[in-house]
Design brief:
Layout: E1 23-34, H1 37-40, E2 49-50, E3 53-54, H2 55-73, E4 84-91, E5 96-107, H3 112-130, E6 138-148, E7 154-155
Antiparallel strand pairs: 1-5, 1-6, 2-3, 4-5, 6-7
Helix pairs in contact: 2-3
């Protein structure tokens, strides 16, 4: 079995989804990020406001925007009409956070890349907004937790 994005001449192609059925699809990605005690200690009521504005609120907006722009960043992703995006950021201890990005559509192709891009961009925005406090932050892991509505459902 070959790669779906490579044609018979071993050249890149965008997969033709015209024959696929429209289904409700959901994907959830999770990112974990080390902020460190120095950054976390500045939070009050699960939010930190820097000179650039409220960190988590801004990061969530950036993540939503990234979901909508995924096909412009990843060449073989189809432009999609996104039905909804829900991003949740949790401080899990005195050093780490986790980001969940859930994306929903009714479409012919999966949205794993959109969920992964949203979670990643949320973390990158947090890094950007907090780097004046510390540059020891680390985006540790970005992974797909769940997808449903396509050929195969996944739940990790």
């Amino acid at each position: 079995m070959g790669f779906s994005h490579i044609n018979k001449k071993n050249q890149p192609k965008m997969v033709d989804v015209s024959g696929k059925e429209i289904t409700k699809r959901t994907a959830i990605a999770k990112a974990t990020m080390f902020l460190g005690t120095e950054v976390i200690s500045h939070f009050e009521n699960d939010e930190l406001t820097t000179k650039k504005g409220p960190v988590f609120q801004t990061a969530i907006i950036a993540g939503i925007q990234a979901v909508k722009k995924t096909s412009e960043l990843i060449p073989m992703c189809h432009p999609l009409l996104i039905n909804g995006v829900d991003i949740d950021i949790n401080i899990i201890n005195n050093e780490d956070i986790e980001v969940f990005c859930k994306v929903m559509i009714e479409g012919k192709t999966g949205i794993e890349m959109e969920a992964l891009t949203g979670a990643s961009t949320t973390c990158l925005t947090i890094y950007d907004m907090c780097k004046s406090i510390s540059q020891k932050m680390v985006i540790k892991e970005v992974k797909l937790l769940e997808k449903s509505g396509g050929k195969s459902d996944i739940k990790n």
